[in-house]
Design goal:
By secondary structure, this protein is an alpha+beta fold. About 15% of the residues lie in helices and about 30% in strands. It binds FE2/S2 (inorganic) cluster.
Length: about 250
């Protein structure tokens, strides 16, 4: 596997912002949005357009040539004329810098790591949203590392890595997460037991088992978590109005 390469200082890239960097000879578009850093190839899969030159809006970058949009978090192609994803790479934030590790192919090795500016020291009873951490002035750490107590907001951020395999929209923005409860693990001191109430878009959703497994994997990867429990809740039933604006935008629903 390739090594992480330091490509920029944190302060060089405003939030929101983007820049073009070179990683081991490959040109990579690097993004800073919502306190997180993301990296994808600077190559539109339609016809090679330079994505770092495109317009960045939320988590989408528009190719400056013919307008195809890509998700900067995953490299997924979101609109025509591009239909194939571009490569998304691993990112970490460490020692005041942003580091990128190249992936071999789009989608290879699971979801890419995203670099985050983590929360500062805060009271243990206080939840640590990325926005709050930025306002307070922060130190650096990796996404799954320490930097603040585990809280519902952080778990929901982790859950955004899980996507409905048919809609390609994350389960948080789809409105599938009804509740997140954390409690101290009785078996492993210092760790948390996470219970997630989750619904499906339909009672017979064929993607259900995969979504449950992906949900457990995404949250269970945190070193602060001892166990993840997923409860399927069908009451109240899911309805499209539970989707966020980002999800509607992604699905072309207005
Ligand atoms: S080259 Fe990017 S949309 Fe055509």
């Amino acid at each position: 596997m390739a090594e992480f390469v330091r490509v920029a200082d944190i302060a060089e890239i405003p939030d929101p912002g983007k820049t073009l960097v070179e990683v081991s000879g490959d040109m990579v578009a690097l993004f800073h949005v919502g306190g997180m850093f993301y990296a994808i190839d600077d190559v539109c899969t339609h016809d090679g357009g330079p994505l770092a030159d495109g317009e960045l809006r939320d988590y989408k970058i528009a190719c400056p040539r013919h307008g195809a949009k890509f998700d900067i978090r995953t490299g997924a192609a979101l609109s025509m004329p591009a239909v194939r994803p571009t490569r998304a790479h691993d990112v970490k934030v460490e020692e005041g810098g942003v580091w990128v590790r190249l992936r071999s192919a789009a989608g290879a090795g699971g979801p890419p790591l995203h670099g985050t500016i983590a929360a500062p020291v805060v009271p243990t009873s206080t939840c640590c949203t990325p926005a709050a951490s930025r306002e307070a002035g922060e130190s650096t750490a990796e996404l799954t590392g320490a930097g603040g107590p585990l809280c519902e907001d952080r778990v929901r951020e982790m859950l955004k890595e899980v996507k409905d395999p048919e809609l390609f929209v994350n389960i948080v923005d789809l409105g599938l997460i009804y509740g997140v409860t954390l409690s101290p693990a009785t078996d492993v001191p210092g760790k948390q037991h996470v219970s997630i109430d989750m619904t499906m878009t339909s009672p017979a959703c064929p993607a259900g088992p995969q979504l449950i497994a992906d949900t457990k994997r995404a949250v269970g990867a945190s070193p602060e978590v001892s166990a993840v429990e997923v409860r399927i809740v069908m009451d109240p039933p899911w309805t499209p109005d539970r989707m966020t604006e980002a999800a509607r935008d992604q699905l072309g629903i207005f």
